[in-house]
Backbone:
């Protein structure tokens, strides 16, 4: 399938991955990409993970700016920011912002990290959400719906993030009315905002093949209601920069997605699936 080769969510280099930003740019050019983005991660005073210093972030931003100018006749290189809902309120200049919710604050004030095992999430539900997984689900999607106001993002990532840890429905049944209603409320709110939703390649195995997020019914609903989308993937690296992207494009198209969008300031450029731009 011919598909628009745009990658906006690439933080591997900044996080200490095997490829330098320039190596990724060169790999993207070789793969025929039109646009590639590099995102730094906004600082969070509550984060349990090691974070980059302001000096390291500034140096990374300068490097991406230099690459953008160096290769501007061959590819568009953009600078982005990845921002959790509870990130510190310090906003640096960038071309786009990716918003997501990987933490929740319970009524007792406890900050609960979501990107953990299902068992750890259930322990937080018991300790801080009155034992109600439905309360955590509702709080999660209510928080996601507020991302544009809180983070100034124009890209929504990991919309159904809880499903990442719900294999075998060990946390909840995504077909139950409580989950579907909470997700629908957030989708209806965000569809009225000037944002695009991420379609993400979660993983690939010989047994299961590629798995995508959000779930098919969510993408179908969003596409039917005029939402924008962007495609990202975990299969990257300088050897096979767009591994899995063709499968992601086919998944998107099967859900009714017509193209992928790139923010250009306050405007958007949307490249249809099915032809090169």
Residues:
């Amino acid at each position: 399938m011919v598909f628009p080769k745009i990658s906006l969510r690439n933080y591997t280099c900044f996080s200490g991955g095997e490829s330098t930003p320039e190596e990724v740019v060169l790999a993207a050019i070789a793969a025929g990409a039109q646009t590639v983005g590099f995102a730094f991660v906004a600082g969070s005073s509550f984060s349990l993970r090691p974070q980059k210093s302001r000096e390291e972030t500034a140096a990374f931003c300068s490097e991406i700016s230099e690459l953008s100018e160096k290769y501007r006749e061959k590819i568009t290189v953009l600078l982005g920011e990845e921002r959790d809902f509870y990130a510190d309120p310090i906003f640096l200049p960038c071309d786009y912002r990716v918003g997501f919710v990987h933490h929740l604050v319970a009524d007792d004030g406890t900050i609960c990290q979501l990107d953990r095992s299902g068992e750890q999430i259930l322990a937080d539900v018991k300790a801080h959400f009155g034992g109600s997984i439905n309360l955590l689900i509702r709080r999660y999607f209510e928080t996601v719906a507020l991302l544009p106001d809180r983070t100034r993002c124009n890209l929504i990532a990991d919309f159904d993030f809880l499903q990442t840890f719900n294999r075998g429905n060990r946390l909840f049944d995504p077909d139950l009315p409580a989950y579907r209603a909470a997700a629908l409320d957030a989708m209806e709110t965000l569809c009225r905002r000037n944002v695009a939703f991420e379609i993400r390649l979660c993983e690939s195995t010989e047994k299961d093949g590629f798995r995508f997020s959000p779930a098919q019914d969510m993408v179908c609903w969003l596409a039917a209601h005029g939402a924008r989308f962007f495609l990202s993937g975990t299969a990257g690296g300088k050897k096979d920069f767009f591994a899995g992207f063709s499968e992601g494009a086919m998944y998107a198209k099967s859900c009714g997605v017509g193209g992928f969008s790139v923010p250009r300031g306050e405007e958007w450029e949307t490249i249809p699936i099915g032809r090169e731009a």
